[in-house]
Design a protein that fits this description.
heterodimer; A: 353 residues; alpha/beta; Rossmann fold; 2 domains; five-stranded mixed sheet; 12 helices; 15 strands; globular; B: 251 residues; seven-stranded mixed sheet; two-stranded antiparallel sheet; 11 helices
Amino acid sequence: MAEKVLMKGNEAIAEAAIRAGCRHYFGYPITPQTELAAYMAKRMPKIGGVFLQAESEVSAINMVYGVAGTGLRVMTSSSSPGVSLKQEGISYIAGADLPALIVNVQRGGPGLGGIQPSQSDYFQATKGGGHGDYHLIVLAPASVQEMADLTATAFDLADKYRMPTMILADGTMGQMMEPVVLPEPYEAKSEKPWAVTGTKCEREHNIINSLYLVPEELEKVNFARFEKYKTIEENEVMYEEYMMDDAEYCIVAFGIAARVSKNAINAARAKGIKVGLIRPITLWPFPKDVINKAADKVKAFISVELSMGQMIEDVKLAQECKKPVYLCNRAGGMIPEPEEIIAKLEELEGGND
Amino acid sequence: MAVVFEKTKALTDAPLHYCPGCTHGIIHRLVAEAIDELGVLGKTIGVAPVGCSVMAYNYFACDMVEAAHGRAPAVATGLKRALPENVIFTYQGDGDLASIGMAETVHAATRNENITVIFVNNAIYGMTGGQMAPTSLPGQVTQTSPYGRDVKTVGFPIRVSEMLSALDGPEYIERVAVNNVKNVKAAKKAIKKAFENQINGKGFSLIEVVSSCPTNWGMTPKKALEWIDTNMIPYYPLGVYKDRSAVKEEK
């Protein structure tokens, strides 16, 4: 069996990216993703890779765009305010149908906000983020092990669907240390006939572009891209169910909020409250079906979030408002205590008596 | 029969969309000739800007990438770091390079990123209909400086070549013009050198090409070329502003 090592989440992403064949990293310093860039700065020069500290997040994402155009695996990482700056480039990467990985180790906002963990970039991550109609595949790890595993998944999905993917982590996931079994290094194999690598005067020139001045053409490109998104929604949804078999209440939570929720569920069950968890691992595509099915048997949903309530909208939509959805949240860098979730459940139980 | 002139291989057959009298056509041709003569068409990748030359990706026969406004040097950095054996160039206007993309320009230069930058300075935003550019001259009337560029409120034009040559990083900075045969010949030489520098691993070369925009300057093409001599070149003197290798040789 592969050896377990103790690592910070940020470092696990970096090492997993290298093992997934990523040799190009561009970033700009920001807390709390710092260790990721530092790890890359140390490792990349030793393995013939590129670590470059760009002059801004704007430049970093455009360097990513350049490498992505050549078909090589490439990534950037940042935290909330920095990811806002990257949105222009992410929109271009999506518009040019290029694979790339963007990591957001979220912190509290808006504005400069704080440096403590948050999930308040959910809307930005799952609804596109920049201008225009597009999505990213958004993966939400809930352990250091998943930080590593989902990094490889993110690269593979980016190549498979030729689109940008995002790991939406938060300050706790980035900073905390846990034992992790690192994925084995592998060589990604996928044909990229669209890449710009030089024509060698043997083929027509390739063009990486998102400009379509003829509206009929631009519409066609958008419709085709959304056909692809439909395929992804059908095939790539990932989630975890926890104690949902007999659940009367369903908590929906991702990342650190899901871990706190599991503690709350164990404690609530000891008190006789039948509650379970659906933990989206892909935030886009959102696990709509499983939530919709759960709505037929639970009394209510609780969306537990480190934000003022963003995912809650998707929980309502997923089950077409069949059952009420309550919010249990903290914001600004605060993390809900299991007791706060239990209190919410007890309040609901009381209301039902 | 001896061939004295032929179409460059580095340009496609697509008809250029530029206005009558615009000098982009000449500059495209010079870049293409340099690529042809150096025999690097098959390994060249160009980066198009946002601005009048946004569709340069249709005109150059090499692989092309369309960058966001001002980001071409960052995109080129990514390309060059991914494919160090390839030849990477950007083709940018003054709004793109010297306004919204100034940070990308300065930092690519200071890293001595081994790329070639073709900087077309016509002192105006052409594509959007003639707004004041960072290089618009004092007093120059544009759509957004209808009473003439007032340096007291909007500041002075930026002399990009002079500014970048103050950096330790870049290998080669030269300003040329394309308003007469003599200047076009000098421009060709400079552009070719900028590509040669990259092929020889010397680093960042930027050629500022002083050019015209008859449409948005509100002049005939001929008058616009004269205006380059009478107004542009006095503010933007032609010449080599930095040549690190030449300095080394002297030493």
